[in-house]
Design goal:
5-stranded mixed beta sheet; 4-stranded mixed beta sheet; 14 helices; 21 strands; binds zinc ion; Amidohydro-rel; Metal_Hydrolase; hydrolase activity, acting on carbon-nitrogen (but not peptide) bonds; Imidazolonepropionase; Metal-dep_hydrolase_composite
């Protein structure tokens, strides 16, 4: 076997949920975990690169199960739908993929995208021409004519931005087959949407039978289904129809929880987007009255999700990275903190959600834990996430990011993205400011002029 890497002295959190082990050696060979503990020390040779992790935590790379790497941090749907080109968006996605990896995220599920960029970016990363996290990708999000969160900006049929309207059973089935033909790993369905003429939160815009058709068609072709659900009925129906994973699951009631438990549906609540909007939305123009609505959505949903967690439902962490309030490479680990704060998970359970459980989104058992035979996706962290889960959000605490046995360069700065005139980004000047956890007086001053 060729030379590899030996990490010594660290406290290993292996991602399985087992108690941490102090001073545990990790040997990496050919991109995989070759041995642990005494075996690792015994098998290591002079040729192996050494990493001293004394006083530090060694843990699996994070899995972010809800990203939008092709979106390029828009502040609104107009920008996203009407002011982008395929080629530029592709290059922007490649640029952003590096930032994700540097944030300690070694795997992502990117469930819907502009054009077919998700699948192409996944392959570009896999073939080594783009540096980024391992990806699983979806294509266009399926919508009914009622649309999704973009309301009437979604055309009555065909594609708009990241969405495709599927009117009728045949169109639905054909679109799923088309996406699978071009390489998707997941099908994304927007089960709720905002209807401009109806005041209030999102409403369910799919019938149960339609959802069944989607799930049956995808499953027959060995493809999983993830659903955006922001009310109770949508989560209930999606789970019963056979959806494999649910994003948001907002306001789920006991009946929805029962359906989720019964069907073994995975949950990826993605509080981070709402949390960032609640905390920083005001700075980027969100109406003040909405901030409390976002906060309430998190609190009400989390209270219910705690019951689902107690019942053994599988939780994954997602950040909805890719919007202006969730800039790429900055907020991937906030979800762990929110799971602890709002759902009441232990830091260890939150880590399992962000590592081992992420394997489900990646559709392979080879990621998510540090066990012999798994991909060597490893973080060395200067701190103890079990004592302070927020340490994973600190770039300066991330000492090493290793993907498939390769150390990622965390030092060379990534060139700053400047806006080109055709970018319709009113607030992107403000966007980098959301990257700091606290705003300085100077930043607030700048924001007030945006
Ligand atoms: Zn999303």
């Amino acid at each position: 076997m060729g030379s590899g890497m030996l990490i010594t002295g660290g406290r290993l959190i292996d991602g399985t949920g087992a108690a941490p082990r102090d001073d545990e050696a990790v040997l990496i060979r050919d991109g995989r975990i070759a041995a642990l503990g005494a075996d690792a020390l015994a098998q290591a040779t002079e040729e192996d690169e050494r990493i001293d992790a004394t006083g530090r935590t060694v843990m699996p790379g994070l899995v972010d199960a809800h990203t939008h790497l092709s979106f390029g941090e828009p502040t609104g749907n107009d920008e996203l739908f009407n002011h982008r080109t395929e080629a530029y968006s592709s290059m922007l996605s490649a640029y952003n993929a590096r930032k994700v990896l540097r944030a300690g995220v070694t795997s992502v599920l990117d469930a819907d995208c502009l054009w077919n960029i998700g699948v192409e970016l996944r392959d570009a990363i896999e073939t080594g021409i783009v540096e980024g996290p391992r990806m699983r990708a979806g294509g266009q999000a399926l919508m009914t004519m009622l649309g999704g969160t973009a309301g009437r900006m979604i055309k009555d049929e065909g594609r708009t931005g990241y969405a495709t309207v599927v009117n009728g059973r045949d169109v639905m089935v054909n679109e799923i087959r088309r996406q699978i033909k071009y390489g998707v790993d997941w099908i994304k369905v927007m089960v709720t949407g905002l209807i401009p003429s109806m005041k209030g939160p999102e409403v369910k815009v799919w019938t149960f039978d339609e959802l069944r058709t989607v799930c049956d068609t995808a499953h027959e072709l060995n493809t999983l289904v993830v659903a955006h659900c922001r009310n109770a009925e949508s989560t209930r129906d999606a789970a019963r129809a056979g959806v494999d994973m649910i994003y948001h699951a907002s306001y789920l009631d006991d009946e929805a929880i029962e359906a989720v438990v019964e069907n073994g549906t995975a949950m990826c609540p993605t509080f981070t987007l709402l949390g960032n909007l609640a905390d920083y939305g005001e700075k980027v123009g969100t109406a003040p009255e909405l901030l409390d609505v976002f906060r309430a959505e998190i609190e009400i949903t989390a209270k219910q999700l705690a019951k689902a967690h107690a019942a053994g439902v599988k939780f994954l962490t997602g950040s909805e990275t890719g919007f202006a309030v969730t800039p790429v490479g900055e907020w991937h680990a906030r979800e762990l903190e929110m799971f602890v704060d709002y759902i009441g998970m232990s830091p260890m359970d939150a880590i399992v959600a962000a590592t081992k459980n992420g394997a489900f989104a990646m559709r392979t058992d080879d990621v998510g834990t540090i066990e012999v035979g798994k991909y060597a996706d490893v973080l060395v962290v200067d701190g103890d996430p079990l004592a302070d889960i927020k340490v994973l959000q600190r770039k300066d605490a991330l000492v090493e990011v290793i993907k498939e046995g390769k150390r990622i360069d965390l030092k060379t700065p990534i060139p700053e993205r400047k806006m080109r005139s055709s970018d319709q980004v009113r607030f992107l000047a403000a966007c980098p400011l959301t990257r700091s956890l606290a705003f300085t007086e100077e930043q607030l001053e700048m924001l007030s002029h945006v």
